[in-house]
Every structure is written in structure tokens, then in C-alpha cells.
Automatic annotation (TrEMBL):
This is Histidine kinase. GO terms for biological process: phosphorelay signal transduction system. It comes from Actinomyces glycerinitolerans. The keyword Transferase applies. Residues 405-424 are annotated as: Disordered. Residues 161-188 form a coiled coil. GO terms for molecular function: kinase activity.
Amino acid sequence: MYITSLLLQVLALMRRYPVDRSIGGSGMSLGKKITYATLGAGFLVFDASTWVGGRSAASTVVLTILTALGSVLLGWFPRFAGVLVVVCSMADEVLSAGVLLSSVVLQLVVVDWLSRRWDAAVVAVVAVHAMTGTVVANDSMAFMRAQAVLTAIAVIVGMALRQYEHRLVELAEREARLRLELENEELRVRSEIALTLHDSIATDLAQVVVAGQSLARDLPAGSEEDRARALVDAGQQAMTHLRGLMDGLRTPDSVTERKNIDLRAAVSECRRMLESRGVLFEAGSSVSWDVLLRDLDPPSQTLLVLALREGAVNALKYAPDGSTVVVEIDQIGDHINLEVSSARHTGGGQSATIEEMRRQGMSGSTGLSGLAMRAARLGGKVVYGPAGDRWLLGASVPVRLGAEPDGGADVRVGVESAGDTGGD
């Protein structure tokens, strides 16, 4: 009863302090299980070979088989098999059954449990076994010395195995972390390439398509030479960007950083682009251009240029003929704000126009979300959405260099929430 009570306490300790089960589980390789099974089979064969004339006491046979079975199962069922070995070892001491390798198999349990960080259970088992053996042994001092040597060896091996398995887990976690970082970096690079393609080739080709459609529709009545020249210029610009991307995929910003990134050049470009399709363009600024060029760093200027061009291209694709695109630039506090407002179709015509654009590959979701990502990196914000019969796109960037990003993200604004807005 005393031994049974102690073993129940050992099981309770193992359930209460299963420190770092993941380490034990992940470190328990198939090779370790096979090693335990091989040792168990070897112990059984060795003990059986010492039975005189093939005969031995029934208790010795039973305890030997159970001890070997516990060693075999230790890799798969460490709690059950370990307790089985402990019980057999103590029974061998009490009954003097003469199971030769019971103490060695017990130390194998100590090694395994230490590698699993079941330290409290190991201490309890070693203490109970030592007390039991001391009480029943003929030479208690010799027993204690032998057990001390075996336990010391088991502790050294168990701690070394624990450290080895812990190192394996650390390496596995590091590999998983590096794999995740690699996947995230790959996703980031893909996103940057997508933004680069949108801000250069897709935008230019959109102008080509729209100009070509306008030319085909109004060819008999318009100034064919000017429209054809605009079409050729936009196509040449697209090919220039395409060659730059093919030539080593330059860094994302290098394609979109034109020779002149100031807003004055962008305003002139957008005015010329829209008026070629019969859309009026009005721009006003409460901030002098000198302030914009002086207080905004190149990435912030580039963002405003991209926002202006994004709004203009969306108007080029969706705004009704004869409508007006309004651009306003002002400063509020330490931020420069740019807003592009364009007319939009309402009702069923809007959805039909957008669906047609999507089929032609001229509409998506890269531009607006890409602007929001760029703005967040700079500490600014991008807002967009419908308001009545107008489509609004706004961008805000800090005027002070080194401003910390505030995690700004895209925010949809407007009084209407239903239907496609026509944003690109």
C-alpha cells in the first residue's frame, strides 16, 4: 500500500508539472523510440539467458517480461511505461526476484523523464526507489553506492538529451520563423512590384486605351493629329517603363520617380491628359509651390504626384464628357492635403461602365490600396470614396521630415455605400 500510494503521488506530480510538453513531443523522434524498444528486447534476451536450465521463478519471469515491455513502450507511452518499470523495479527489490537489469532500465526511465523536464517525478521516483532498496537490501551501503553511480550517469545523460532536444526545438522554431519572414518578404516584394507596375505601365496604358477609344469615336470631327500624337507619346512612355522593369526590375520607387516629381509638372500633365478627352481640369492651391518643394521630402512629393495622377486617370476612365475635375491643395497644421474631385456616372450606367472597364483590364484595386500603403509608411493617410455625384480622392502627408508613421490606412468616405465606386 505504501509503494502504491507513492506511485500515485508520482503520477500526480507528472500531471501537475508537465513542463514544456512540446519539447518532449517534438524531440521524441522515431530513432529514440526504436532505441528504447531495442534496449528492452536486449534486456529481455539477456535476463532470459541467465535462467538456469531455462527455468526460473514465476515472479522473476513475470517481472522481467514486464520490465522489458515497459522499456519497449517507453518511447510511445512514457507515463504508463515509466510507472510500469518503476513498479517492477521496486517489486524486484521487495521480492528479491533477481531481475538483473531492473535498476538499469529504471535509470533509462530517469533519462527519458529528465529529457521531458519531468524533474519532480524523477526526484520522487529516485527517492522512493532508494528508500525501498535501502530497507530490503542486505548491504544497504553497497546498494546506495551502486544506485548513486547509476543515477549520476542517468542524470548526466538525461540533461544532455534535454539540452539536445531543446536545441532541436530552437532550431525548428528558428526555421519556421525564417520561413515566415521569407514568405512575408516575398509577399512584400510582390506587392511592391504590383504597385510599380500600376504606377507606371498600367497608368500609361490606360491613357493609351482611353485616347485610342476617343480617337476611334470622334475621328471625323476632331483634331486627328493631336490625338494621334498623344496616343503615340503615351505608348512610348509605357514602353520606356517596360524596358526599365525588364532591365533588372529596378527598385520600386525608381520607376515612378520621374525626372520632375513636383506637383506643377504633374498638374500640367493631368490637365493635358484630361482635356484631350474633353474633361475640364481646375487646380487651386493655398500653399505656394516653393513651400511644397522646400518642406516636402521626395517620397512625400512622389505620393502627392501619384495621388493626383491616380485621381486623374480614374476621371479619364469614368468621368462623363464635359465634366470638371477639381484639384485642391492646402495645408492644415503640419500636413499638406491634396484632394481630387471628379464627376461620376450614377445609376445603372455607372455599373455598366465599370464592368466594361474591368473586362478591358483597365480597372482593379491596386492603385488606391497601394496609395494607402505608401501613405502609411510616410506617416500620412489616403481617403477615397463617393460623395453624391462626385468621386473624392484625398492624400495627406507630413511637411516635417522624419515624422513617425502613425499607421494610417485607407479610409473610405462618402455618403453612399452601395454600388461600385469606380476606383482603380
